[in-house]
Structures are given as structure tokens and as C-alpha cells.
Design a protein that fits this description.
The complex is a heterodimer of chains A (about 425) and B (about 475). By secondary structure, chain A is an alpha+beta fold. Chain A folds into two domains: about 200 residues, PmbA/TldD fold (2-Layer Sandwich); about 220 residues, no CATH class. Chain A is about 25% helix and about 40% strand. Chain A is built from ten helices and 19 strands. In chain A, strand 18 and strand 19 form a beta hairpin. In chain A, helix 4 packs parallel to helix 5. The longest helix of chain A is centred in the N-terminal third of the chain and has 17 residues. Chain B is of the alpha+beta class. Chain B has two domains: about 220 residues, PmbA/TldD fold (2-Layer Sandwich), CATH 3.30.2290; about 250 residues, no CATH class. In chain B, helix 1 runs parallel beside helix 2 and helix 3 packs parallel to helix 5. The termini of chain B are far apart. Classes of the chains: A alpha+beta (about 425), B alpha+beta (about 475). Chains A and B meet through strand 1, strand 2, strand 3, helix 2 and helix 4 of A and strand 2, strand 3, helix 2, helix 3 and strand 7 of B.
Chain lengths: ~425, ~475
């Protein structure tokens, strides 16, 4: 693993080698240790480092990019020559933006743990053993993945802008199967210290036990309570539909909606750069500084995403996030309180294979899995068979009834459990 | 490279590994992407590295690196064995046993008539810029988008049982898309031809600039079209559309690793069991599926898989009955086979190879005289679907819902009007058992899938499917809105 000084020297050399008036170069490093398990045994176990240098150069509005993963002098020479050749041969790009001169980067907490970098294969195997042993003891089968790693990015351009970012991460997810039902749980943290692997095993196993022998349920409109993981997976499609330019062209659900109430006033959607538990880089494309953003405030669409070109056209500030982290502040209620408030509905633990049906409406389809439960009179009464949904997250957020406390999901979201009315399920399946 | 592969295999053997292999991957890519009239990306990437797999005490270890020095290879080989030793702390009930495989020593080079890396960048960019410009000139089109993506994949695989293969393949993935907005409706239309194992000659065949206007006009037509009808009706599906239906509802359920539960945490499992081989009525007697990893132009035709098994062709479904599964050297013995059928691949040198569905296609109908128009003329009320659109299937591969790229109402045996927002929902076996007709061999077409995600961490993989036009009876349409 190279230190920052070495990396900066390499990037400075790359910038010196090119005769292009505009240049920006990025070094990326990723260490990943990943152990998969299935049927209560480790099935794959791997470790490796990757590094890459990407160089973009421009002559006027003619640009080209090249990248390599070997850093010897001859390869670096080839990297520079190739990027220059591509740029010189390329047609002019009317939307090309020159390198940025200055940016002020937010101070962010150190998202780094030495212990993660030096985690031994034995330590990881012992972590997995906690889950598989718990499942095996009760006659269940656990599958999943234990991943940990370190990522670093260093950016420099011909205007003297320098940006660096690094973080470690640990990510564990498991699905535990019984003969007639399953449960799953996951956690994503910066270090091993923040992780409670026993609670992951316990949570997945409790859901698996409760999910056995589900009863029939007919598709239709239901009040639903989504656990935070399901909320995050469902709302990630919001992140992919926030381009201001596409909205102005009328191609997305947010067309002509800026300043309008788009969801329930209980909902504000923000992105927090300095949250210590989110893997949010402090800079984005071209080194643009990440800023805290409010996308939806009290139900009103306040801001969409502007890349540098469109921001320049519209005379607004560009923002760094291609896919922003999503933060929704919930209440102080535990999820159990939402269940007690529900007279009849479905508790959704996990969603699967979510895809667009109609992008303009943001109508999505997908399946429930790993635990779907019928709630009656404020209590979970039984597990039920999985269902296919066809519903828009905008409708889901409009029909909101209540929220629980927020939780971190996937390193990119902090969202609550959400109770919402009239959620449309359209077909059923025999799959458990 | 032989010196390095020998070094890796010697180090793993000295460290106690009972089996090891090393795979060296050298990959070069060239991407050109245009949005509207802007050349958003034009790049070339080169990446090279190697990975070493080792079995110790019946458990796998895997380590990868891009450090090709002797020290780097030795360190990575030792790491692979150390990781295998740790895997044995949470052991499988039975140790890993690999199906026997002959020793192979061969150098193979795939088809590429015109090397895309030798074609001037300006020429490649101009194909997309002129196509997007044409599409944007059609009133109602707000967004035009195109990609050309070329890959040259060079692999060397050496195994501890003496195999040493050297393979080179070229892959080409072209996409063109128009997005039209009419009032509050927005619809897209795509033209791809599917990805293919080929060189730049494939781009010339597709003639993007010549097809751009039609694609754009059809996007506008689709945005103006009536919404989907709802109810039970017949479908006639074109080969490009069927590629995705085949991929999701036949390809994935017949992967042996999924059946064994090794993908249960993410991609899911399967309704199929090894005991079903020879018995399960997957479809009706019209339905025949074949894997052919030697298919010319097929994205899965890599000569050898990552287990160093020579790729082959074999039936998967015959007259509706499941007769085989795809497998690796590790899964084959577990499900009762002596030999792997060569379906183990990985995205790159950083990735552990896994069981991958291959070039899986549906055989054309028995009667070669049957045309797509014959199928449509046999439908009183139904929908004709072209191309791929929305897709989703449950984790056991039973319940699925598909959209498409272009839709036409069929009334009284003929196409009457365009439609939009069509989806259909079915259960896998019920769907394939409702096949009422298949057009002849002349209408059979392949279609490459570039981005199949599977595994954890997710790996991208490519394969080609194929079909002739098919008629399905009594399918639930429009269920996305009830």
C-alpha cells in the first residue's frame, strides 16, 4: 500500500508529462477481503488489492481519458501518450468543462480503522462462525458475505487543485433459511468496533424462525410497514432520478415539480457529508466539493442534482453527488410502536429485484423476501407468502402514516422504518 | 509468463495445497459515450493482474494482485493458501472435490475481423454523434444516448494438474437510445442488436446512423400510444425480448451453485433440484433449450472456462423436460456428475470464479415454414412485444414480470396499434408450458447480454441467448396496475 506522499509524487509526474493545457488525474486504491458462506460453511474466501490511475486531458474542448493499473514508468508514459492521442483525435465536446481552480472541502470525521486493514483471515472466519454456529444449532442454514476493506482516492488537476479521501469499511449480511421460510440481516460500518455480529445472527435467526410456514395472502392494496433496509432499497431509485436537466426535459417524475409538494410534509430528504457513519466522499466528479444538501424539505421538492455543465447553464452551484446519500430524519419511536399503531397491514423486512416499470411515473416493481408478516390489531399475527409489488416510492412517501427512528443502511443511507397506506401488491408466488 | 505460473503453482504446492491454479488476465477496454450532442466519455483502459486459487484441507483460498514480480507472485500464492487454511475453520460438510478434467494445453484466438482498437477514435465518436444528432432532430425527442464499448480479454490459465491455456477474445457492445416526451408521458426506444463477440465489423453491420431516425420516431410513437390493456391474453414475443425471459426464468434457475444454496444471500436459490433432472416438466413438448459455449459470436464462448474446462454444447431442456444443469468442477460431483460442463467464469482477475449460465438458447420450432406473421395471425386478442424492458423475478425464479421495448396490439390476427407500459406476469413453468407456437429456424436470432450481475461482491458477466419468435397463450397482461 502506497503512502500519500508517494501517490502525490506519481500524480505530479503524470501532470508534468503531459503537454495538454488541461489535465486531471485520479489515483484509486481498493483493498478488499471477502468471505462468502452458504449452508453454514465458507464457500469462497478472497483477498486482493487494486490500484488505478485515470488521466483526462483536453486541448480546447477536445478531451480524452485513459487509465492503467500498473504504475511503472513505461506504463505511465503510455497512459499519458494514449490520453493525449485520444483527446487530439476526438471531436469537440460542446459541454466540456475545464478543470476547477479552487474548492473548499468540508472537514469530515476520520472514517478509518487500522484494525480493518490488518484483519486476518482467521478473525473473519471466526466472525462467520458466530453466524453459522447459531444457525446450525437450531437446524437452520446460514448464507452470506463478510466483506472488509480500505479505499483511497487522490485527485489532482493542472490548476493545482488537490483532494484526498479515504475510508475503511466492514459489511456483513446473512440470510438464514429454515425449511419453509427465511430471515436476513446486515450491517455496514467503518470499523469492527461498531459492529455487533451476535445481534446480526440473532436478528436473522429470529426472523427466520418467525417466517416458517407462511399462510396464503391475496395481492391488493395494503397498509405496509417497511423496515429501514427495505426503505433504503426502495428509495435508492429516488437517487437515480434527481437530475435537474432530465426533469426540465420532462423525462422524470420530478418534471415541473421544483417548489411543489411532492411527498408528505413529514418527509425531508437530505445528504449529510460529515456524518461519521456514512461512506460519503468529500469530493465528486472533477473534484467538486461535496456539500450538505436538502433535496426535499417538509414534503416540498427544493433542489435537484446539477452537474457542472448544467449548473453553469442555469447559473447555480454544481453539486458533487452523482448518487447522493439519502438521510431522512424519523421519529424517536421504535419500529414496534408503528406495528402497535397498525390495525391491519403487512410488515415488510426485505425487498428484492426492484426495477422500473415506468420511469416517468417512477413506478417500480419488485418482490418481498426473507419475511413478510400480517399485522392485525397492532400485533404480528402470522407470516405470509411473498408478494410482488407495483408501486411508486413517491406514492409510498405521499401516503405515509408514521415513521420510526432512523437507522444507518448500506453506508449510504440513514432512514427510518415507514408506515404507509394503500401500497399496491399485484401478484403472489410460491417462493419462500 | 510460464515462469510466473510455474512459480505460483510451486509455492502453493510447497505450502500444502492439494490443488491450485493461476489465472492471468490482461484486459483492454475502449468506451465512447454520447449524451445528446456531447461526447461525455472517450477512453481506453488497460488492466492486468492475476489470481491464485488453492485448495487446502478441502477448502478454497483465493488471492489476487497486479504485482507481477517474483516476490509479488510468491506473496500472493502464500496468501491464497493462508486464506484456504482459514476457510477450513468453518468447513463444508464434505471437502471440496473437483470433477476430473483432462489436461489441456492450447492457444485460442477469437473472432475479430476489424480490431476496434485500430479504428480511429474520431470515426467511432462520429457514429454516435451523428446518430444522436439525427434522433434529436425528431420533434418530441429530448434525449439521445449512445455507447460503443469494446473489450479485448486475454487470459492465461495454468493448473496444478498440468493445463496451460492461452485465450484471447474480443467483445463489442453497442447501444442507441432515444427518449421522447409527449405531454406528461416519457418513453424510450432502444436499438442494440445485442452485444456480440466480434470486432468493429459488428458496428458497421448495425448501421446506427441509418437506423437512428426510425428509433427516434418509434420513441415518439410509443409516447403517444394507448396504455396497456389488462387481462388474460396471448403474447407473441420477438427473439430479442425472449433473450431476457430465457435468461431470468431458465438460465438462472438451472445454475447448480444457486440450486446448492451458495447464492442464497443475494441472488437467491432456485425452484429446481438436481433430483428434477430427467423428470421436471419445465415447459410443454415444443420447448427445447440448449447451452452452446462454442456458439460463434456468443459472449460466453471463451474456449475454456475459469476451471480450465473446454467449453462445449449440451441440451438443458428437451421436449419440455429438464435434462441438465450448468455446473463447475466443484458443483458437478455434488449434483451427481463425473465431469463439469464448463460453466465457471469470473469478471476479472480480482474475482473468484463462480457458476455462470452460458450461451443458453431456445431451439426454433420443428416446422421451419412457420413465420412470425403466422404466429400473429393465430392470435385473436393479444400483444406483440419487441426488445427488452422492465424485468423482475423472485429469488426462487418462479414469479416474474416483464415489460418490453415496443408493443403492438394484436386484434383479429393482425397488429392494429402501438401500445405503451405493457407488462406481463407469470410463473416460470406455467409460462413455458403455455408455448403455443415457435417460428422456424430462419427467424432464430441470438442476442448478447452484457451485464448479468451475480455473486458477492457482485460480478458482471456476459452471455448470449437466442430464440425464434414465440406465441404464448393466456398470459396475465397489465398487472402492474390492478
Amino acid at each position: 500500500m502506497r503512502d500519500l506522499h508517494d501517490i502525490q509524487s506519481i500524480l505530479e509526474r503524470v501532470l508534468k508529462l503531459t503537454d495538454a493545457p488541461h489535465a486531471q488525474v485520479t489515483y484509486s486504491f481498493k483493498n478488499l477481503t471477502a468471505s462468502r458462506f452458504g449452508n453454514n460453511a465458507i464457500t469462497q474466501n478472497k483477498s486482493g488489492d487494486e490500484e488505478e490511475i485515470q488521466l483526462s486531458v483536453a486541448y480546447g474542448k477536445h478531451h480524452g481519458t485513459s487509465s492503467v493499473n500498473q504504475l511503472s514508468d513505461d506504463v505511465i508514459d503510455r497512459l499519458v501518450r494514449r490520453a493525449e492521442e485520444i483527446a487530439k483525435a476526438s471531436p469537440e465536446d460542446p459541454e466540456y468543462m475545464p478543470p476547477l481552480k479552487e474548492q473548499t472541502y468540508q472537514e469530515v470525521p476520520e472514517r478509518f480503522s487500522d484494525e480493518v486493514i490488518h484483519a486476518s483471515p482467521e478473525k473473519i472466519a471466526r466472525n462467520i462462525d458466530i453466524i453459522t454456529s447459531a444457525a446450525h444449532a437450531e437446524g437452520y442454514e446460514a448464507s452470506g458475505i463478510h466483506q472488509s476493506g480500505y479505499e483511497m482516492k487522490v485527485f489532482m488537476n493542472s490548476e493545482g487543485l488537490i483532494a484526498t479521501d479515504r475510508h475503511t469499511w466492514v459489511s456483513i449480511s446473512t440470510t438464514i433459511h429454515g425449511s419453509n421460510g427465511s430471515g436476513s440481516a446486515s450491517t455496514d460500518t467503518i470499523s469492527f468496533n461498531e459492529m455487533d455480529i451476535e445481534s446480526i445472527a440473532r436478528s436473522a435467526l429470529e426472523t427466520a424462525r418467525a417466517s416458517q410456514d407462511p399462510g396464503e395472502i391475496e395481492p391488493g392494496d395494503y397498509t405496509v410497514i417497511f423496515e429501514p433496509k427495505a426503505v433504503a432499497d426502495y428509495l435508492q431509485f429516488l437517487r437515480w432520478n434527481m437530475e435537474a436537466r432530465e426533469a426540465e426535459e420532462g423525462a422524470t417524475v420530478f418534471a415541473n415539480q421544483l417548489g411543489e409538494t411532492v411527498v408528505h410534509p413529514m418527509i425531508s430528504v437530505t445528504s449529510e457529508v460529515a456524518d461519521p457513519h456514512l461512506w460519503v466522499p468529500k469530493f465528486g466528479v472533477d473534484g467538486v466539493a461535496a456539500e450538505n444538501m436538502t433535496w426535499i424539505r417538509n414534503g416540498v421538492l427544493e433542489r435537484l442534482h446539477y452537474d457542472r455543465y448544467w449548473a453553469d447553464q442555469k447559473k447555480v452551484t454544481p453539486d458533487s453527488f452523482t448518487f447522493p446519500p439519502i438521510c431522512i430524519e424519523g421519529t424517536k419511536k421504535p419500529l414496534s410502536e408503528l406495528i402497535s399503531e397498525c390495525s391491519r397491514g403487512l410488515l415488510v423486512k426485505h425487498l428484492w429485484y426492484i426495477r422500473y416499470v415506468d420511469r416517468r411515473e417512477l413506478l417500480l416493481t419488485g418482490m418481498t423476501r426473507d419475511g413478510l408478516f400480517l399485522i392485525e390489531d397492532g400485533k404480528i399475527v402470522k407470516p405470509v407468502m411473498n408478494l410482488r409489488f407495483n408501486e411508486s416510492p413517491i406514492v409510498f412517501l405521499k401516503n405515509i402514516v408514521d415513521m420510526s427512528e432512523s437507522m444507518y443502511v448500506g453506508g449510504w443511507a440513514k432512514v427510518p422504518g415507514i408506515m404507509s397506506n394503500e401500497f399496491t401488491f399485484s401478484s403472489k408466488t410460491e417462493s419462500l | 509468463m510460464k515462469e510466473l505460473t510455474d512459480l505460483a503453482l510451486n509455492v502453493t504446492e510447497s505450502a500444502g495445497a492439494t490443488y491450485a491454479d493461476i489465472r492471468i488476465v490482461d484486459q483492454r477496454e475502449n468506451r465512447i459515450m454520447v449524451e445528446r450532442r456531447s461526447l461525455k466519455l472517450i477512453d481506453e483502459t488497460e488492466s492486468s493482474g492475476f489470481c491464485i486459487r488453492a485448495i487446502f484441507n478441502g477448502a478454497w483460498g483465493f488471492a489476487s494482485s497486479s504485482d507481477f514480480t517474483r516476490h509479488g507472485v510468491e506473496k500472493t500464492a502464500k496468501r491464497a493458501v493462508d486464506i484456504a487454511k482459514a476457510s477450513a475453520l468453518v468447513p463444508k460438510p464434505d471437502p471440496v472435490i473437483l470433477a476430473d478434467e483432462k489436461t489441456h494445453v492450447e492457444t485460442c484466438v477469437g473472432i475479430c475481423e476489424e480490431d476496434p482498437f485500430e479504428v480511429p477514435h474520431s470515426q467511432k465518436a462520429e457514429v454516435l454523434l451523428s446518430s444522436c444528432n439525427t434522433m434529436l432532430s425528431v420533434p418530441g425527442v429530448v434525449m439521445a444516448w449512445g455507447v460503443l464499448w469494446f473489450v479485448r480479454l486475454h487470459r492465461i490459465i495454468a493448473t496444478s494438474n498440468g493445463s496451460y491455456v492461452d485465450t484471447t477474445n474480443w467483445f463489442t457492445n453497442p447501444i442507441l437510445q432515444a427518449v421522447a416526451v409527449v405531454g406528461n408521458e416519457s418513453q424510450e426506444r432502444n436499438y442494440t442488436g445485442g452485444a456480440k463477440q466480434a470486432g468493429y465489423e459488428f458496428i458497421r453491420e448495425l448501421d446506427f446512423p441509418g437506423r437512428a431516425k426510425q428509433i427516434a420516431e418509434e420513441a415518439v410513437m410509443k409516447a403517444k400510444a394507448d396504455d396497456t390493456p389488462t387481462g388474460i391474453m396471448d403474447l407473441v414475443l420477438d427473439p430479442h425480448h425472449l433473450a431476457l425471459t430465457i435468461h431470468e426464468s431458465v438460465g438462472h434457475p438451472t445454475e447448480s451453485d444457486r440450486i446448492l444454496g451458495w447464492e442464497a444471500n443475494m441472488a437467491g436459490r432456485s425452484f429446481v433440484s438436481p433430483k428434477d433432472i430427467g423428470f421436471l416438466q419445465y415447459g410443454n413438448t415444443r420447448v427445447n433449450f440448449t447451452v452452446d459455449n462454442t456458439l460463434e459470436g456468443g459472449l460466453g464462448s471463451w474456449f475454456y472456462d475459469d476451471d480450465c474446462v473446454k467449453m462445449m454444447s449440451f441440451p438443458v431442456i428437451r421436449e419440455g423436460i429438464l435434462v441438465n444443469l450448468t455446473m463447475t468442477r466443484e458443483t458437478a460431483p455434488i449434483i451427481g456428475f463425473d465431469r463439469s460442463n464448463g460453466c465457471c467464469r469470473s469478471q476479472g482477475y480480482q474475482h473468484f470464479p463462480i457458476n455462470r449460465q452460458a450461451n443458453l438458447y431456445m431451439e426454433p420450432g420443428n416446422d421451419d415454414s412457420v413465420t412470425p406473421d403466422d404466429l400473429i395471425s393465430g392470435v385473436d386478442k393479444g400483444i406483440y412485444i419487441e426488445g427488452r424492458g422492465s424485468f423482475s423475478i423472485d429469488q426462487m425464479r418462479n414469479n416474474f414480470q416483464f415489460g418490453g421495448d415496443m408493443f403492438w396490439m394484436i386484434e383479429g390476427g393482425r397488429k392494429t396499434k402501438p401500445l405503451k407500459k405493457v407488462t406481463y406476469q407469470a410463473q416460470t413453468r406455467a409460462f413455458w408450458n403455455s408455448c403455443a407456437g415457435i417460428a422456424g429456424r430462419k427467424y432464430w436470432k441470438p442476442f448478447g447480454i452484457w451485464n448479468c450481475g451475480k455473486g458477492e461482491p457482485t460480478q458482471r458477466m456476459m452471455m448470449t441467448h437466442g430464440a425464434s419468435y414465440c406465441h404464448f397463450k393466456n398470459i396475465s397482461v397489465g398487472g402492474a396496475r390492478i
